[in-house]
Every structure is written in C-alpha cells, then in structure tokens.
Design a protein that fits this description.
Distance between the termini: 78 Å
Number of strands: 21
Helix content: 25-40%
Strand content: 15-25%
Radius of gyration: 27 Å
Number of helices: 25
Protein name: DUF2779 domain-containing protein
InterPro entries: DUF2779 (IPR021301)
Number of domains: 4
Largest sheet: 6 strands, mixed
C-alpha cells in the first residue's frame, strides 16, 4: 500500500476536473486573476446558502473515531494521510491522495484491512422513489446527479491508483427528503465561522452523535453507476473524446502545461462563469467566453454587439443553431424557431412571438416596443381596488428547524406589501421579516400576511408562480402537522382563498400573476424575450413617460408612502443617457465582505437579490453566522429596502401599462399610440 507524495504545483483536483467536464477550455481560465470568474464554488456566502458545510459536519458525527486532515499544503496533507493509512482500521476526514498529476481530498475515507470506503458528502436532496438508482427510464444517468457521480468517479479512479492493494468502494451521502428530523434545533448546532480566509463549522456545546437523533441523511453505494460512467468516453476537446482514464490524463496534462484546449461552443456558454456581460474595456478582467468565441468563429468586438443566439429566451434549439453556424440573433429565421409569423391573437403573445421579436422588430404597429393594449384592458377589467402587490423572500435549509420536519422544506421569512388606490395613490402598507436564529417563521408569516390582506377584497398580485407555490407548501405543512396551531383552519382557508391548487382550483381571491400579463402583452427588446421582473422593470423605465413623470423627482418615500425610505427618493434617473436600473440606486446588502467575495456573487448584489439569491444568503448569515447585533440589523434593513422595491416595481409595471392602455384607447385611430406613451 502506498500513497504518492508528489505535490505538483499544478495538479488536476476534483474541482478542476468538474470544470473540465463542463468544458475542457475552462481549465485554462480557472485560477487566473486576470480572468473574470463568477463562480460561487469557493465563496463563503455560497457555503452558507447551500448548507454543505453543515451537512458535512453532521455526516462526520456518525464516525466518532474519525481523524481530520487540516493541513492545506498538499505535501503535508499527503504525508499525514499516508501515515494514518498504515493502520489496519481508520477513518479519515479530508484524506489526501495523489497519483501522477492528480490530487483529491476525500470527504470521508474508511479503511478496514484492504477494504476502503470512499464517501462523498453532498448537500444534494434525494428521494428514493423519485431518484431510484440515479438512472432514467432508458438506463442513462440522470442529468441532475451526473456531475456528482462524475466527481465520485474521478475520486475512485485516483484512490484506486493511489491504493493499488486495496479494494475501493464508492458511496454518496445525501440529504434524504423522506426522512424527518427527530430532534428540535438540529440546524442551530452547526454554526459557520470564517477567519483568515478559511471556513469551518463550530459545533454547539454537547453536540455528538447521540444528540442529533437520526440524521436525515442516506448513504448510497454508487459503484454500479461509476462503472457505467467509466465505460463511457469523455470529451477532451472539439470532436475528440477518449476513454475515461485516458481523458483524465489528457486533461491533467493540459492543465499542468497550462495549455488552452480549443473552444467547444455550445448553449452552455450562456451560463459560463468566465463570461462578461459585454466585451471588456481596458483595465477590466478578461472574458473567457469572448476569447473562446473569437477564436472559434473569428469574431471581433463588433460581432458581439447585437446579441447572440445564447440570448434567445426559453429556446432549446440553440445547440443546433450553433452547430450549423447560426450565431447572431439577426441570422435566425422564422423556420429556425418554427414560427408561422402570425400576429398575436386575443390571448396575446406566445413564446414563439417573444423569441422572434428578440431577433426582429417585427411586432404589429412598429415602434420601439410592443404593447397589447386591448388584451391588457380585458385582463384588468375584473380587478378590484385597492390593488395589493406582494412579494416573498424564501429559503430552503438543508437541516430542519424542528422535530418532524423534512430537509429543504420552504422557509418563508419575508414579505413586502404595496397598495394602489383607485385615485392612483400608492402606499407601502406592510412588511414582515422573521429571521431569528432557530425559529421557523412560516406560521407567523402566514398570520401576518392574512392580517395585511383581510381588510378588503381588493385584487392581490404576484409576479410568477413563486408566491403561489410557497403558500401551497405552507398549507401542506399545516395539514400535515401533528402539533398544528389552534388557528390552523383559518390559516388554511386564507391560503386557499388566494391561491390555485391542482386539487381544488382557484380561490375566490386568487392572486393575479403579473408575469403572465407581461408575457402576453408586453415586449421590449431590452428584455430579450424574458418576462421576469428583473428584465421588465428596466425596459419599462426606459420607455414609459408615465414612470418618468412619477419617479423622475424625489416623490417616493417618507411617512405615509414608505416603511423603509425616510427621505423621498427619485427612482427614475439617467446615467450616460441611459435610464438606471432602480436597484442600482440602493446600497449593497453586505458591506463587510471583501472585494473578492462581492465579485463572486456577481458584483451587483441588487441583481442577485432580485432573483432571491442574495436574500437567501442574507437569511443564511442571520441564521448560521455569529454576527454582532449591529451587523444583523444592517442586513435586516437592507433586506427590507430591497423587498420594498420588489413590490414597488410591480406597482410601477401596472402604472406604466395603465398609462399605455388608456392612451391607446383615447387614440384608437392611431395604432402606434401606445408606443408614443
């Protein structure tokens, strides 16, 4: 038995191998400060949000005799691991193994004689009846688990070569959504601590295997799946695939020699972490994506300006277009999209309309954008004043709060609520935030929301399906609870009144989905076809005269209209001739992080928060990080401001569309009247 002590300054680790399986070219960009890298893999914030560190520490509690390898230096870690493996029976956490230019750290390695168990711990949810053996109906590895199994395959490949006299068996240890916590306060036993760039989990006093009950984790043997992966070829460059072992060697050689593998353009380039939003300016980090496409297609800066097929919204045929050389939006034809060219009907725009309009300004009536005024007026005709706009912030924590709860159940920790009156008056009427450590906020959340909406029968609005889904989940929790609150029936009835369920239809006051309204009746080139609020709001700010008139001066804020902005603020502002995204006017959520950490979550925290990402991180920090009270209050205040802007953005959308619809009706003889608004 031997463990290689070679410690190359450049080794193919499992994280780098994962990058290479996404795209071999990424090996050239990773770790180089001159390249933009939006990856969250090594971010403290990401570690908080996904619960991986806590799940890993919970898993280790089951192996009380385990020895942790804390050494960061490869050579030192390899030396200590080799010494421990001289024992006949031993359990090692973060065991270091290396062979050639390959290096891995194993989450949990158990050795008993010549038998070795390699256990990879993931904060990935698992349900036996749904995920079975990680294979689909035709025997293929499920896409959702394929990256994890590739990771374990690489580790087993290295471990078997490093320990040739042993029989290595591989396992995944996952979070089991069928299991329930058997103790209260499980997730509060694992606090995240950071210092000097390192993260670790601080256990609450008295935390041991006997104090955490039956962990909601499942250990699954995966050698069969790994054998299947090892038998399949692995891409190592454009048009070139090799058997697994040879592919690993080729990728390791390319990384060690710092050789850039030729680009492999595909639809995956759209989500590349090395992709800048535009051609970088002098002094800005380099963009790996732009370099790849420039090399692959002979492109220059001007070729990227009008958009690529990567920008096509909700279109699954991007790879086919790229393969045949259709790369720019203005090269896409109706036939490519399978679009018949018909004008929108009474039901409004379809997905095909939105995709085509992103390629060509071919909407009826011309102008700078499309607005279906007649369809919008029909949609708003049943609305009852006052109008209520609500937005939720939620999280899904891996380890449950309370006994009887399952992992990854939805946690609704915040809402904002704006009201628009028939006379046009707007008020930020109520809000709620529950982020006390260890306290499940769901019941109090619904109580507060019910109180906010119960005083009239005005129409309630959401943006997309999230709010409906969250409330349905809490309804299921209430109906399933063995210790249900005394007002369970009232809360369930309230939820049913404002939501839609497949088993019961729409409630009498079912929320109206403004995202659906946007998708059917509004298209602006800035949205690229998307109807997400993140895309629609800046587009409306750029084209609506009504929003400019309402918010172009400091009119919003202060007592009576806002709960978080004590001084009036102008949300409509221009910078270099372009209307600014209102979220850019807010201070960052986190002002205590390094520039590198801020860069990792996208640089503009406002953008992340609009999608819920930074809000989840903020909630995780409030739950699992030991923060001074001043820092906790600063994060809470930032959450309240951002969530208020979320519901105000919904109000702005209705204000803009109302003005367009009314102007169009007043000028029905002119089909371009709405665009003139």
């Amino acid at each position: 038995m031997a463990t290689s002590s070679r410690n190359s300054t450049r080794s193919l680790t499992k994280s780098r191998f994962k990058l290479a399986t996404e795209c071999p070219r990424k090996l050239f960009y990773t770790g180089k400060r001159e390249y933009l890298d939006r990856s969250l893999d090594d971010s403290f914030l990401a570690a908080l949000a996904d619960g991986g560190y806590q799940v890993g520490e919970l898993a280790r509690l089951a192996y009380a005799d385990g020895v942790r390898i804390d050494e960061l230096d490869h050579a030192a870690a390899l030396e200590r691991t080799a010494a421990l493996l001289q024992q006949d029976e031993v359990t090692v956490f973060e065991a270091a193994l290396s062979v050639g230019n390959l290096f891995i750290r194993v989450d949990i390695l158990r050795k008993c004689g010549q038998a070795v168990e390699l256990i990879e711990v993931k904060a990935k949810s698992y349900r036996a009846e749904k995920d079975r053996d990680f294979r689909g109906a035709k025997g293929q590895i499920q896409s959702g688990f394929h990256p994890y199994l590739l990771d374990v395959a690489f580790q087993r490949h290295v471990a078997q070569a490093a320990l040739p006299d042993c029989q290595v068996k591989a396992f995944l240890l996952l979070v089991d959504k069928n299991k329930r916590a058997t103790v209260d306060g499980l997730n509060q036993r694992f606090k995240i601590v950071r210092s000097d760039g390192r993260l670790w989990v601080q256990l609450a006093p008295g935390t041991r295997a006997s104090s955490v009950g039956e962990p909601p984790l499942t250990k699954i043997a995966v050698d069969s799946q790994i054998d299947q992966i090892l038998a399949e070829p692995l891409a190592v460059g454009p048009g070139r695939s090799l058997p697994f072992a040879q592919a690993v060697d080729a990728l390791a050689r390319a990384y060690v020699e710092d050789k850039a593998i030729d680009p492999m353009p595909s639809s995956a380039c759209g989500a590349c972490q090395f992709r800048a939003p535009r051609w970088p300016l002098t002094g800005e980090p380099r963009s790996g994506f732009h370099e790849c496409w420039s090399q692959a297609f002979g492109w220059h800066e001007s070729d990227f300006e009008q958009g690529t097929v990567l920008d096509l919204w909700n279109f699954r045929g991007k790879n086919e277009l790229i393969d045949r050389g259709t790369l720019k939006l203005d090269q896409v034809t109706r036939a490519d999209l399978k679009f018949d060219g018909r004008a929108p009907g009474a039901a409004g725009l379809t997905a095909k309309h939105r995709q085509w309009y992103a390629c060509r300004a071919d909407w009826p009536g011309g102008g700078g954008f499309h607005f279906g005024a007649e369809g919008y007026r029909a949609a708003r005709s049943p609305w009852r004043y006052p109008l209520h706009f609500i937005d939720f912030e939620t999280s899904q924590v891996a380890l449950p709060f309370h006994q009887g709860r399952r992992p990854y159940e939805t946690i609704a920790f915040q809402f904002s609520h704006h009201v628009m009156h028939q006379d046009g008056r707007v008020e930020h009427r109520s809000q709620w935030l529950g982020a006390d450590p260890g306290v499940d906020p769901n019941i109090d959340f619904v109580r507060a929301l019910r109180e906010a909406l119960r005083h009239d029968q005005g129409t309630v609005f959401r943006w997309a399906a999230h709010e409906n889904t969250v409330l349905k989940h809490i309804r299921e929790q209430l109906l399933d609870a063995s210790d249900a609150p005394v007002d369970r029936d009232e809360l369930v009835a309230f939820i049913e009144s404002i939501t839609t369920g497949s088993d019961r239809g729409a409630g009498l006051r079912d929320m109206v989905d403004l995202c659906d309204i946007a998708g059917k009746f509004f298209f602006h080139p800035m949205t690229r076809g998307s109807s997400s609020l993140k895309q629609v709001l800046p587009a409306l700010m750029s084209c609506s005269r009504r929003l400019r008139d309402l918010y172009g001066h400091a009119s919003y804020g202060g007592p009576g209209s806002s709960l978080n902005f004590s001084e009036p603020i102008a949300w409509w502002r221009e910078h270099d001739g372009v209307v600014m995204d209102p979220y850019q006017l807010l201070p960052p959520v986190f002002d205590d992080l390094t520039a590198e950490e801020l860069e990792l979550i996208g640089g503009e925290l406002a953008g992340e928060l609009r999608e819920g990402g930074a809000a989840m991180v903020a909630y995780a920090r409030l739950q699992f990080e030991d923060l001074p009270e001043s820092r906790r209050q600063a994060i809470k205040s930032a959450l309240l401001r951002y969530c208020e802007l979320d519901t105000l953005a919904m109000v702005m959308a209705v204000q803009a569309w109302d003005a367009m619809a009314d102007l169009s009706q007043a000028n029905r003889h002119d089909p371009r009247a709405a665009a003139a608004e």
